[in-house]
Amino acid sequence: QVQLQESGPGLVKPSQTLSLTCTVSGGSISSGGYYWSWIRQHPGKGLEWIGYIYHSGSTYYNPSLKSRVTISVDTSKNQFSLKLTSVTAADTAVYYCARDGGGGGYLDYWGQGTLVPVSS
Amino acid sequence: YELTQPLSVSVALGQTARITCGGNDIGNKNVHWYQQRPGQAPVLVIYRDTSRPSGIPERFSGSTSGNTATLTISRAQAGDEADYYCQVWDSSSVFGGGTKLTVL
Question: Are B88 and B30 in contact (CB under 8 A)?
């Protein structure tokens, strides 16, 4: 059973960089066949896809966030990470990592999510 | 690309709920559906229009036609109360705004 767990700072100040890591267990990122995604949900709102990465390092980002987002992978640790620069209060959200079954396809395993407030 | 869902749908206990997702030519895209209970992560309930992941009851089914995709929940139970989201890929992964299902 694949499991994902987000980790990172619980609070980020405006203009700084939000950094989160997702640790995958029960499956290997380097085995291929899946894309590893980040999704966020603003408080009381719907889901917003941020982007994904393949084990090779190839990435694809939501055009609306592309200028501020970097997703990277560390196959030796079975982790992938999210960096979002120049954050504002509008980036306050629950951030989820998830496994994408086929590159823009369905998200079949999700982490529990982590709330990241942006506040001074 | 935009996906349009009703804000809320109500269904009587034991009856059938239908949640729609509208999008241009959505019938020619792969549509996926998620259930999200309060305070929890989303759970995939339907993928590629009609397929159910293991562990999802047969009461959940999906269909698409033209500009509308539909998630159908038969014999609705109290535990089905949740927000439901549709998702497609169109140059980027896109989610609908979500529908709150209330079981009366």
Answer: yes
